[in-house]
Amino acid sequence: MNTSPEEILQKYWGHSSFRGSQEEIIEAVLNGKDVLAMLPTGGGKSVCYQIPAIAQDGICVVVSPLIALIRDQVAGLKRRGIKAVALTGGISFNEASTLLDNCLYGGYRFLYLSPERLQQSWVQERIGQMNVNLIAIDEAHCISQWGIDFRPAYLKCSILRELHPAVPCIALTATATNRVEKDILENLSMFSPEVFKDSFERRNLIYRVIKKENKLQQMLQLCKGIKGSVIVYVRSRRRTQELSRELTQHGIEAMAFHGGMTRNEKDDRLRDWLRDRVRVMVATSAFGMGIDKADVDLVIHYELPESVESYFQEAGRAGRNGERADAVLLVNPEDEQRLYHQFISVLPDVAFVRHLYNKLNNYFQIAYGRQEDGAFPFNFNAFCNTYDLNPALVYNGLRLLDQNSVISLTQQFSQKTTVYFTASKGEIFEYLDAHPGMAVILQVLLRTYGGVFDFETTVNPVLLAKKAETTEDEVVTVLRKAGADGILKFVDEQRDTEITFLLPREDDRTINTFAHKIHELNRIKIQNVEAVLAYVNNDSLCRSVLLLNYFGEKSAQACGLCDVCRKKKKGSGKEEASLDAHILTLVRERALSSQSLIDTLGGEREIVLRELQYLLEEGKIRLTNNNEYTALS
């Protein structure tokens, strides 16, 4: 090693010293040790494998779950003058082959790829020929079937250990319970690993739960009260579009971001957000992973997350620059029941999986004891309609069968068919007059799904066919024709689905081999939901302490600033009550900006801002369109 880690850090990153356990992790890797590194979001995980890889001859192979994350990492390395390759989907065989040749002969230092791409035998063969100096598994919690973001292909990352048995492996994650940690170590066949776990505590990040009937109004107030960048997390593509439109209508620059957008749309929106051309991004959960934007001042969860792990990871994308930031969870009375409906009521038990597997074999006329070769085209809606099955239960049941290698689903597997009208209502009426044969189906669509003018709406072709007294194929034909004529945007994803049966049909015996796993997965998912609700309904323990306890840290100190800590202070805080009364007196007379109030009151900026936020949450004051505070009563 000709250059020390400190010199590499200074040369490429411009920092003179490491943070937390970074230096110890790098030293362990350079000494040839396997390493599991658990560092908080924003804790500099990538440096832990990038620096030791640069310090040695050869190339580092990095497995990462998201294309956006891979592209962001590769772009960052290239900006620093470090040669890196991204082997993502959507590129031809010839192009991928050329990129792998570059890794062999072109002096490249990093090869990034997804776990699915790693499963291709020709890719494995080429990696086996490379001078690999380090194997890095990013977002390693995806390995664990007990984790929130389980990806079956991650279970096969250990092929890299077989290809290069003498090369050290580093696994990195920002969220891991003890059970997930154990799964990572076992699945990657780590030999005498060194485990590093920095505290997940973020002293600059203030966690709050706000319970309000009108969450929309609360979100608008929060976004108006923040000058910096904001992420609003929601659970559906439709909701990203709804809320971004509401924010824009109230004078707040906002955009939607979700998985259904094209690559160019995502790139354009991400670029606008990173360059502060738009202030608020309303997004589904994957947004923000690995994206280097340090100045996010506020993360809002508009809907309850499915687990504490996902909430903690997403909330942690605020305040990565070390400045004060807020993570707010908005809750109304219906949210608890909605959470159960979304995640618990659709968990397939063993009996349902057995029933599903039986119907699946019958559907394709597979005899007992036989295994069919080749892939079967699969119409999801038709299958559910044939056997009168709950689509959400079927979707989750098929995923279980896929994860346990009973069947194989194509990567495009989806239960969603979406429609979005791009023409005006006047143009649609003209189109109906000109195409009377299509009118009945399109009118049924308009009556059944009110949101199709505003956003991509998931529709059920089987339901539309029943209401229009026709066939599903006719519905699809009409929607496809209207799409080709520019009246609407039509995406019928599930029709591209294919199923391959990997085992001979043995009905109950096939399912019994992993029945215990189904029981355990369901138990954990129920526990996850209960942990989220315990966090929401907690009114006695500091939010930060409660979150850290969940991840095994028992010695954390109360933050003093979360909603629970503040309410405790309010119980005996005469000074805060006096300040609140003074603020209310001033803003009843006339609307004032936060700076005007700080100047008038002569108090500490943080304290005044904290009390303003408290009064906003209590509904005693509001923000005007000029970002001034005025009394509500």
Structural summary, described in words:
This protein folds into 5 domains: 5-197, Rossmann fold (3-Layer(aba) Sandwich), CATH 3.40.50; 201-333, P-loop containing nucleotide triphosphate hydrolases (Rossmann fold), CATH 3.40.50; 343-413 and 497-513, Arc Repressor Mutant, subunit A; 417-496; 573-633, Arc Repressor Mutant, subunit A (Orthogonal Bundle). 47% of the residues lie in helices and 15% in strands. The chain contains 28 helices and 21 strands. The strands form 5 sheets. The protein has a 7-stranded parallel β-sheet with strand order 3-4-2-5-6-1-7, sandwiched between helices. The radius of gyration is 27 Å and the shape is globular. It starts with a helix and ends with a strand.
Labels describing this entry:
seven-stranded parallel beta sheet; alpha/beta; 633 residues; six-stranded parallel beta sheet; 15% strand; Arc Repressor Mutant, subunit A; Rossmann fold
The 3D shape can be described as globular
Beta-strand residue percentage: 5-15%
Kindly state the percentage of residues in helix. 40-55%
Strand order of the largest sheet: 3-4-2-5-6-1-7
Structural class: alpha/beta
Can you summarize the main beta sheet? 7 strands, parallel
What's the helix count? 28
CATH architectural arrangement of the largest domain: 3-Layer(aba) Sandwich
Number of strands: 21
**Could you name the CATH topology of the largest domain?**
Rossmann fold
Give the CATH superfamily of the largest domain: P-loop containing nucleotide triphosphate hydrolases
CATH class of the largest domain: Alpha Beta
How much is the average pLDDT? 87
